[in-house]
């Protein structure tokens, strides 16, 4: 739920809700106004992102198509960053990843990217709580010839991940991308660490949250959850080789599950 919606949903608390919403909205704007200038989601107005993108291999036509389709889908800002996706694509190819998990599908860009990187008998367990957004991606997955690799599960992701563990899949996954509701990141992280094999990779999106995690005066529930995750992961000796990959104005954080001390 975004700040605006929570203010509306507060009902009898509308005044308090509205005030909170306003404060949050203003704080977001403060960080985002700086960040947007360098945000690769806005490549057209962004010379740095354009430069980087023009020095990478082009996106797959299906990725381009899905980005275009998503332009007219509600909550378009939820779309994953294409430079991040290219990095994930290359890392997965280099790892030879086969079994993967995508938590938070939206219109299916991350699931598509992962599916394009894994072999024909690989799989992406793609978890979302609603079909409202994945329905836009499903035809594109088909057109790209990767739909057979994507196993879409519509349910709260915590339930889907727990079912995978109950089904005996502990320690069998190569990669997990976490990009859903922030207050469940810790649950996704813990379940994911169980599902990943030693040496498996977990990538958590939005770990800077537009810079808000660094500002102790910002205390909405998403910021608190992400700040707590950063603090927890920094001290967690179950993961190593922590890469923090800056993307402009936000950050993707990739963890490799602990294999051995070096
Ligand atoms: C930021 S979007 C994901 C973006 C996507 N990874 C992409 O590549 O564009 C977050 C998604 O998480 C989903 N979501 C929110 N809460 C969830 C939950 N409890 N379980 C599963 N999915 C959830 C939303 O429906 C939304 O589609």
From TrEMBL:
Pfam families: Methyltransf_3. Belongs to the class I-like SAM-binding methyltransferase superfamily. Cation-dependent O-methyltransferase family. InterPro entries: Cation-dep_OMT, SAM-dependent_MTases_sf, SAM_O-MeTrfase. It comes from Owenia fusiformis. The keyword Chloroplast does not apply. Keywords: Methyltransferase, S-adenosyl-L-methionine, Transferase. It comes from the Eukaryota. Signal peptide: none annotated. This is Uncharacterized protein. GO terms for biological process: methylation. GO terms for molecular function: O-methyltransferase activity; S-adenosylmethionine-dependent methyltransferase activity.
């Amino acid at each position: 739920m975004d700040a605006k919606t929570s203010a509306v949903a507060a009902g009898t608390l509308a005044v308090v809700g509205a005030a909170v919403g306003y404060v949050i909205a203003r704080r977001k704007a403060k960080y985002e106004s700086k960040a947007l200038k360098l945000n690769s989601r806005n490549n057209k107005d962004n010379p740095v992102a354009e430069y980087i993108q023009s020095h990478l291999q082009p996106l797959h036509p299906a990725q381009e198509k899905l980005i275009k389709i998503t332009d007219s889908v509600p909550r378009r800002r939820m779309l994953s960053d294409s430079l991040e996706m290219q990095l994930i694509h290359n890392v997965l190819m280099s790892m030879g990843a086969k079994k993967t998990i995508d938590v938070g599908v939206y219109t299916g860009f991350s699931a598509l990217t992962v599916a394009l990187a894994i072999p024909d008998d690989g799989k992406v367990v793609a978890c979302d709580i609603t079909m409202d957004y994945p329905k836009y991606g499903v035809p594109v997955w088909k057109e790209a010839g990767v739909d057979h690799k994507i196993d879409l599960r519509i349910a709260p992701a915590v339930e889907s991940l727990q079912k995978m563990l109950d089904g005996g899949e502990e320690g069998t996954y190569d990669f997990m991308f976490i990009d859903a509701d922030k207050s469940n990141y810790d649950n996704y992280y813990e379940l994911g660490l169980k599902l990943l094999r030693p040496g498996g990779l977990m990538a958590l999106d939005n770990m800077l949250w537009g810079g808000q995690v660094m500002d102790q005066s910002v205390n909405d529930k998403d910021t608190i959850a992400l700040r707590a995750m950063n603090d927890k992961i920094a001290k967690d000796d179950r993961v190593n080789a922590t890469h923090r990959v800056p993307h402009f104005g936000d950050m993707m954080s990739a963890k490799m599950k602990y294999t051995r001390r070096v």
